[in-house]
Design a protein that fits this description.
Blueprint (H helix, E strand, L loop, with lengths): L2 H4 L3 H14 L4 H11 L14 H19 L3 H7 L2 H33 L5
């Protein structure tokens, strides 16, 4: 009896086999992740990047604040269309950026004090 006479085809059989594999935990994702996390890492972590952190945070904060100011004239449109959160996201980014500026400036000063051996103010 052929597959056509039995009312099945190869695609249906393959689909049921895939479903069985997934139910048994034998999917490709399971095999890949088990192999990925089973083996130890064979390289060391790279050194942390120390760039112009203060300038980067100040620049990002300014961008958020400029975006807030640019959207402020369109407050009514944002409110009418349900996009008012865009405005408040920019303000939150500027506010959190101010906290970030305070933090990275203190961190930078602490690193410089540690290098020179000076007492904290």
């Amino acid at each position: 009896m052929s597959e056509r006479e039995r009312g099945t085809d190869g695609a249906t059989d393959q689909a049921s086999a895939r479903t069985t594999d997934r139910a048994a935990g034998g999917g490709i994702a399971d095999r890949l992740t088990s192999r990925l996390f089973r083996e130890p890492l064979r390289h060391e972590a790279p050194e942390p990047f120390e760039g112009p952190v203060v300038g980067t945070v100040i620049g990002g904060t300014l961008i958020w604040f400029v975006l807030f100011l640019a959207q402020l004239p369109f407050y009514g449109w944002f409110d009418d269309h349900g996009h008012l959160w865009w405005l408040w996201t920019c303000l939150a980014g500027a506010g959190l950026g101010c906290i970030g500026i305070w933090y990275v400036r203190r961190r930078d000063a602490a690193i410089k004090r540690a290098v020179t051996g000076a007492e904290p103010r």
